[in-house]
Design brief:
GO biological process, one term: signal peptide processing
Order of helices and strands: HHHHHHH
Radius of gyration: 17 Å
Number of helices: 7
Protein name: Prepilin peptidase
InterPro entries: Prepilin_IV_endopep_pep (IPR000045), Prepilin_peptidase/N-MTase (IPR050882)
Keywords: Membrane, Transmembrane, Transmembrane helix
Pfam family, one: Peptidase_A24
Length: about 170
């Protein structure tokens, strides 16, 4: 993402420069909303709709604008499919095992799918895999150190956000 935005900002094409600035705004929104949600989820085990919903709307709006500026309807379509796909996957997990993840995680996954899917299926897959690896490794470390048991609730939102952020930064 960093390289992509740099290319847009230095391209000299007015539409691409504006698209780069819009993506920077999307990155700032990710940083602010992601940090707030990760903190709240770690402390209270919830992801408030008053942050997730506006963030989702802003992200979708920014991606529409960037897609228009770059003449990239395929990128927008992929982002929507990725957001819906990640959301449906998490919803199915939630329905199969209600205690495994919360509805906040389901809604958050849609936003993260929009971000990662816009850059490509590889970034989308990397965000998903990294999120689960981070969550699993931290959970395993807590179990081994006996700071948690198999019944301990561990907030998954911070791992979703961090995994997606890493996938976006290094794509």
């Amino acid at each position: 993402m960093i390289q992509f935005i740099s290319q847009l900002l230095t391209s000299g094409d007015p539409g691409e420069v504006v698209a780069g600035v819009v993506l920077l705004l999307g990155g700032a929104a990710f940083a602010v909303c992601g940090t707030a949600l990760a903190y709240i989820d770690a402390q209270e085990h919830r992801l408030p709709n008053r942050i997730v919903y506006p963030w989702a709307a802003l992200t979708f709006g920014l991606l529409i604008l960037v897609s228009f500026l770059l003449n990239d309807p395929i990128g927008l379509g992929r982002a929507v499919l990725a957001g819906l796909g990640w959301g449906v996957l998490f919803l199915l997990v939630r329905l199969a095992s209600p205690k495994s993840i919360g509805m906040g995680d389901v809604k958050l996954s849609v936003v993260l799918g929009l971000y990662t899917g816009f850059l490509g299926w590889e970034v989308f897959a990397a965000g998903l895999v990294i999120s689960f690896l981070l969550g699993g490794l931290v959970s395993l470390a807590l179990l081994i150190s006996r700071r948690a048991s198999s019944h301990t609730r561990i907030a998954f939102g911070p791992f979703l956000i961090l995994g997606s952020a890493l996938a976006l930064m290094f794509s």
